[in-house]
Amino acid sequence: MIIQFEKEIETAQKEEIINKVKAFKYKPTEVITQKGDYLIGIGKAEFDIRSIGLMEGIKDIHLVSDDYKLVSRKWKVKPTEINLGDGVKIEEGGFQIMAGPCSIEGEEQIVKTIAHLKANGIQIMRGGVFKPRSSPYAFRGHGIEGLKIWYELAKEAGMKIVTEVMQVSQISEMDPYIDIYQIGARNTQNFNLLDELGKNTDKPVMIKRGISGTIDELLSSAEYIFSGGNERLLLCERGIRTYEKATRNTMDLTAIPVLKEKTHLPVIADPSHGIGIRQHVEAIALASIMAGADGVIYETHEKPEEAFSDGQQTLNFFESNQLIERLKKTFELRSSF
Ligand code: PEP
Ligand code: MN
User: Fold this and answer.
1) Number of neighbours of residue 258 by Cβ within 10 angstroms
2) Phi/psi at 74 (nearest 5 deg)?
3) What is the structure's pLDDT at 202?
4) Which helix (H) or strand (E) holds 163?
């Protein structure tokens, strides 16, 4: 059960509601976010929803049987819109393109990537400064100093940035230099990190699906952050591990319409990690639009063969230009339905 309190609710009214919820053998948890004050009730008993819903101080009440509640579309009719300022939004009915290298390598690379993106009207650049790598000997990113340089250059150019946070201690140092946090596939169930991103930032968070994670697990991870207080969330399908060896991951395009049905949060597709093969990234990116994604995030680099990481799935700028043009056409086609 989700109860949304009226903004002006009095303490005594709140207590009365909480006692009523407990009387129905539901366990109440109060959640205060940037946008609202809620009570989540966990329980199984059947009861007439009006017996609570008509009480003073309640704006709205919904019965949501899924494990995740606040991120469910069952209670929120208006989909979540992520407003990054300066006219940059991620929202249902629109289509945002986020692109950039797997890793931030240096100033020259940043400047060239920004120029490439700006020439195509792209407003959000991706890149990693803290890189989760399977091998400890691989390039692990330029860290906070790299982020500061990147952020300043991007800001000057009017470009927003999205980058991965790997641990709790990084949040406070990254926060002034970031537009969207990314939770990587290896950290989707790092519940301490999720908790902290709920409580200690109001910056948007894009949560990638876990390498072997189910759709419901992804939604429950989002619930952690939302219930911590941060409603500004995006979900990202980036492929899952299956028995298939011909591709790096199995891009689960089926997750896109399913997520769109289950949650009010925007859904982003990552075709680069999704398939892991440069020449097939475009096909998967275009397919993800038709599957209903609200945006894509993909890897691009001036010289993918020289990229510090993930060169095999990274588009060069020529390929990226072509992809953007085709994404725009495909989005127009979808919008005409
Ligand atoms: C990345 O975006 O470069 C990355 C490491 O992604 P994922 O967590 O999906 O593997
Ligand atoms: Mn990568």
Assistant:
1) 16
2) -65, -25
3) 95
4) strand 160-164
Structure-token match 């929120």, residue found: 76
With a 6 Å cutoff on the Cβ, whether 184 touches ligand 1 is: yes
CA distance 325 to 28: 50
- State the pLDDT at residue 77: 84
Q: Is the distance from the beta carbon of residue 193 to the nearest atom of ligand 1 less than 6 Å? A: no
What pLDDT sits at residue 130? 97
Please, which residues have CB within 8 angstroms of residue 318's CB and are 6 or more apart in sequence? none
Tell me which residues of the chain have a pLDDT lower than 70.
Answer: none
Nearest CA to ligand 1 atom 9: 185
Tokens of 2: 């989700």
Nearest CA to ligand 1 atom 1: 102
Q: What is the DSSP string of 8-26?
A: T--HHHHHHHHHHHHHTTP
pLDDT, residue 330, reads 98
Pocket test for ligand 1, best of 102, 135, 187, 207 (most atoms within 8 A of CB): 102
What pLDDT, on the 0 to 100 scale, is given for residue 18?
97
Residues near ion ligand 2 (Cβ under 5 Å): 102, 310
Please say whether the beta carbons of 92 and 294 come within 8 A.
yes
Calculate how far, in angstroms, residue 131's C-alpha sits from the geometric centre of ligand 1. 8
Atom of ligand 1 nearest to the CA of 238: 9
pLDDT of the residue at 262? 97
pTM above 0.90, yes or no: yes
SS3 content of the chain, % helix, strand, coil (to 5): 40, 20, 40
**311 CB within 6 A, ligand 1:** no
Q: Name the closest ligand to CA 131.
A: 1
156 within 8 A of 125, measured Cβ to Cβ: no
